[in-house]
Amino acid sequence: VNGSLNIEAGNVLLSGAPVLHAGNRYLDDWTPSGFNFSTINVAANKGLQIGQHTSVVADIKAAAGSHLTVGYNSGTEDKHKTRKCTLNDNTGDVNCTSPVLTDEQRNQLPPSSLTGDIKLAENGSLALGKAIWAGSLNADKGTVINMASDSMWQISKNSHAGSLVMAKGAAISFSKPANGKTGNTLTVQGDLQGEGFFSLNTRMADNVSDRVIVEGQASGNYILDVRNEGEEPVQDGRMLTLMSLNNPHQDFSKVNVTLAKGHVDIGTWRYRLTRDAGGYKLYNPVIPWTPLEPAQPDNPDIPRPNNPEQNQANWISYESNTAISNFTSHFNLLNKQVDSTQQHLSNLKPDESGLWFSYQVDELNYGNKAYRPYTQKLMSQSLGSDWALESSLGLFQFGGGLITTISHGSFDEGGRTNDRMTGVNLYGKLTLNSGAWFSGYTGFHYIDYNLKDASRSESSGKFGYIMGVGAGYQWDSPAGFTVQPQTGLNFYGLPSQRYSLNNKVNVSEPASHTVQYFAGLNISREMEVGGLPVSPYTQIMHKVNVNPQNTIRINNNNLNADYENNRTDFSLGSHVSLSDSASLNVKGNYTIGGGLKNSKDIWLEMKLKF
């Protein structure tokens, strides 16, 4: 319509058309209708309904006492109940009813839509049923807006409502401001009641946000969902207000305001909600480490949110936590490339040079105050061979092994990594006639990193290195036990890398060089079981990383990414001589300490003697 619709008497229904079938019958099928007006003017005490299967584009001006209904609505007031009007093709009579849909019928009903701004005068009312309304509201204080559970209001610019009642499921979403420098505001001049969902735009770096302001009394439960854009915020202790309850007589025991996920991740950091006087604000205490209570309901019947400890793990974003977890998992991966060779050397007997194969499966449960817990599953396979040379000092055994380790990491909130390392270790062991022994090894390993999320970050063509030395002594006790203490040093090196995660954070990992001390004790006893020589043993191994401290840069922020400081492995195993030329070694480990909890692995080695 090239012009305005003026409603000066009665009530007007804009609706889709029920389809007329043979026999002058109407079923439950409709022909959708669309209406365009420059303006719809509703006179005082008159009504407008935008019914089912309808879309309307128009600005609406409603005078005092008028009533508006958008979308299917089955409210308690008759004036807001949606009409369905049909035409009798034989008589020309129109029949209007207010049908009540079942939940299934309502769920299948498409939402009606209204695009345009509404001006609502004193004592007017607006009921949003199953509908999507995109526009602003300029309503007098004495008006009432009711939103059904399946209604959506998309606010296009600053709006003023009278009293606002939201059924559970009703949602209000703020459109992005055109200039991005100022937020939109919804001011509720009367009371706010019900259970609603507000979706707000923020630019934390510019201290800009959409905001809900309530000047009357607020009661009920409300969820705030935050969508942030812009640069990385400066961590200067500022707080960003999302919702303000300004009535000096506000009873906070009657209102509960929370964030959609309990937190908001913006760039590097994780923000939570606190209440400062009547304002609900985003804050992060890491810098300047200001302790604040999260927003708490005064009603004891409502569960109170926990106040997390002020350590880094609780206050970094999902992306930052994923990046740090990913970084530390690389050390675990390289450590497995050491384990197979170190265990082989530790258990290598003077009369057992030959071809060997080992297989190891680990499950690490890992985490500390720098990042949230994660699980890493690793599978290592090694194939090697060693030879022996006699000397006046004792027996020198040397060889090499090809090692491949595959890692599957499951990080907090769904981040995943699938990494692989493949390399060659060269080693040697000198066993003196006195029972003392010395060992050493070195190796280089090719790296394939694959971090999976909403986006994928892959890196290959880089190398890590490992090397180490060890020493031990084998003492055969009169009681038939063999006692073998050992100690040594390991050296680990990983390359630097840069990548972007989810287009939200830029990660810069430094090259890391780690020194590790280890010391352990192995006690075994030889016996026969079923005619086979068997040597069960138990072992304890303690490892200390001398320099576990690491820092990675995320969006130019330095974050702690420390490795484990120390760990202790408890092992039970058995060496079985299957024949003169074949042997089997099986061991199970349980690991504690250094952020590792309930971590375990199984190691198996098969050897064919030359």
From TrEMBL:
<dbReference type="InterPro" id="IPR050909">
    <property type="entry name" value="Bact_Autotransporter_VF"/>
</dbReference>
<dbReference type="InterPro" id="IPR011050">
    <property type="entry name" value="Pectin_lyase_fold/virulence"/>
</dbReference>
<dbReference type="GO" id="GO:0019867">
    <property type="term" value="C:outer membrane"/>
</dbReference>
<dbReference type="InterPro" id="IPR057393">
    <property type="entry name" value="PIC_HAP1_IgA0_b-sol2"/>
</dbReference>
<dbReference type="InterPro" id="IPR004899">
    <property type="entry name" value="Pertactin_central"/>
</dbReference>
<protein>
    <submittedName>
        <fullName>Autotransporter outer membrane beta-barrel domain-containing protein</fullName>
    </submittedName>
</protein>
<feature type="domain" description="Autotransporter">
    <location>
        <begin position="348"/>
        <end position="610"/>
    </location>
</feature>
<dbReference type="Pfam" id="PF03212">
    <property type="entry name" value="Pertactin"/>
</dbReference>
<dbReference type="InterPro" id="IPR006315">
    <property type="entry name" value="OM_autotransptr_brl_dom"/>
</dbReference>
<dbReference type="InterPro" id="IPR012332">
    <property type="entry name" value="Autotransporter_pectin_lyase_C"/>
</dbReference>
<dbReference type="Pfam" id="PF24078">
    <property type="entry name" value="Beta-sol_PIC_HAP1_IgA0_2nd"/>
</dbReference>
<dbReference type="Pfam" id="PF03797">
    <property type="entry name" value="Autotransporter"/>
</dbReference>
<dbReference type="InterPro" id="IPR005546">
    <property type="entry name" value="Autotransporte_beta"/>
</dbReference>
<dbReference type="InterPro" id="IPR036709">
    <property type="entry name" value="Autotransporte_beta_dom_sf"/>
</dbReference>
